[in-house]
Design a protein that fits this description.
Elements (H helix, E strand, L loop, with lengths): L1 H10 L2 H8 L12 E6 L5 E9 L2 E10 L2 H14 L4 H4 L4 H8 L7 H23 L2 H4 L4
Antiparallel strand pairs: 1-2, 2-3
Length: 141
């Protein structure tokens, strides 16, 4: 058993480990400007919350009900998108997340797809709330 634990630490990149265990962005944000929720076939769910200042994604947070790989992917999406322009965030792809993490297991690529899908939904929601601000008031989580 001890060997399995040390293998875990050795087989993952520092980026993966940081994103998998980071918790400072784990929060259900009150009154976000953009919100996206996606559940994968595996049963994991990612919720992403955005506060924007003009065209900049000023603050982001997430809530994950799932595995460590999904948490790593959600943190990576926030790391790559936060403090960037909305247009830049649209360029983040599952491959971007997978490549950033370096050691996300290939059979968990769907975790990157799940986190990026939640990002796209949150960005779409942000844009919709800008077109029709009254809708934000009636949103339920």
């Amino acid at each position: 058993m001890h060997g399995e634990a040390s293998d875990f630490w050795q087989r993952h990149s520092l980026k993966y480990l940081e994103m998998a265990f980071r918790t400072d962005k784990q929060e259900i944000m009150a009154h976000p400007d953009g919100y996206g929720k996606k559940t994968g076939d595996c049963g994991d769910t990612v919720e992403l919350f955005i506060k924007a200042n003009g065209d900049i994604l000023e603050t982001m947070s997430y809530h994950v009900n799932g595995c460590m790989n999904t948490a790593a992917a959600a943190n990576t999406v926030i790391h790559l998108a936060e403090c960037k322009a909305v247009d830049q965030a649209w360029d983040i792809s599952p491959e971007t997340v997978f490549n950033y993490l370096e050691t996300l297991p290939e059979d968990h690529f769907h975790c990157a797809e799940l986190a990026v899908g939640a990002l796209y939904l949150a960005l779409s929601d942000l844009q919709e709330n800008r077109r029709s601000p009254w809708k934000k008031t009636y949103r339920k989580f």
